[in-house]
Write a structure and sequence with these properties.
- Pfam families: NatA_aux_su.
- This is N-alpha-acetyltransferase 15, NatA auxiliary subunit.
- By secondary structure, the protein is an all-alpha fold.
- 71% of the residues lie in helices and 0% in strands.
- Helix 3 packs antiparallel against helix 4, helix 5 packs antiparallel against helix 6 and helix 12 runs antiparallel to helix 13.
């Protein structure tokens, strides 16, 4: 082999060895990296195995230390996505009245008013709010100014009692409205219990909205004490509901158990109910 060719051949060999060494170094580094990763994962798995998982107890998960805070978290998406539904703002009022937030209560009333100013449950919110504001001795001046300006729109300088009496007279033929008016009448004057109960128990064919659901709400109000202690009247009303809805097992079962039914128990009645006129 000529000297020039020999030199060229040796150069190729050196380059080949260098390439082989570089490739080997890369493979070694990659192998070390894989081993380190595997070792790290094994350590993490070992640590995880050493931690005892908390037992999942349904009763514990259902409870919360901050129920109103959780309720507000549930409310905010509704205010954004279901602001056109009055139920959203009625719910908001129930939360804010428990948190004693006057301006937020007012905000809920205003939003509900724009949707349906004659909604029966909005009326009860108006009366309760009026009662709270009128009984509050100390209200910050800026808040008081806002309340006075905004409340004039709803109350027109009328007292809670006057507003409730007008409501009962205006909606004297609607059971849902009579129920809320009766609840507020007893709330404002405990001496008016007999009259309040009569609004929702002495109904006739002229009264609209006498449905299974509304009758259940009346019984719930009586059972919860919204109309005072009235076991005798509740038993009598249950009998009347049985006669009015003979196929609704919800009233028959409640009468047998001597308790008022709940709203959820309405699902227990049979499908073949008589149609209401």
């Amino acid at each position: 082999m000529a000297p020039a060719e020999l030199k060229k051949y040796r150069n190729k060999q050196r380059k080949a060895r260098k390439r082989a060494e570089v490739e080997k170094e890369k493979q070694t580094a990659a192998q070390e990296k894989r081993e380190q990763h595997i070792k790290s994962r094994q350590q993490q798995d070992g640590e995880a195995d050493g931690v005892k998982e908390e037992e999942l107890v349904p009763e514990k998960l259902a409870k919360t230390e901050d129920s109103l805070g959780q309720a507000i978290r549930f409310l905010r998406p509704l205010q954004n996505l279901a602001s056109e539904r009055i139920e959203t703002h009625l719910l908001a009022f129930e939360i804010y009245i428990r948190k004693d937030k006057l301006l937020l209560m007012l905000q809920s009333i205003k939003r509900a008013w724009l949707i349906d100013p004659n909604h029966p449950k909005l009326h009860s919110n108006l009366i309760r709010f009026c009662n709270i504001v009128s009984s509050r001795k100390e209200i910050p001046a800026p808040v008081k100014t806002v309340l006075e300006q905004e409340m004039e729109r709803f109350y027109k300088q009328k007292s809670a009692h006057e507003l409730n009496e007008e409501f009962l007279a205006q909606f004297s033929n609607s059971m849902p409205h009579l129920l809320q008016g009766a609840r507020m009448k007893y709330c404002l004057d405990k001496q008016s219990q007999e009259k309040a109960i009569s609004y929702v128990t002495n109904f006739n064919n002229q009264i609209k909205g006498v449905t299974i659901q509304n009758c259940i709400e009346v019984l719930e109000a009586m059972r919860n004490g919204d109309l005072g202690s009235c076991d005798k009247e509740m038993a009598s009303f249950l009998t009347k509901c049985q006669e009015l809805f003979p196929y609704a097992t919800v009233f028959r079962q409640a009468h047998e158990n001597n308790v008022g039914p709940t709203t959820n128990s309405v699902a227990n009645h049979v499908d073949s109910l008589p149609k209401e006129e």
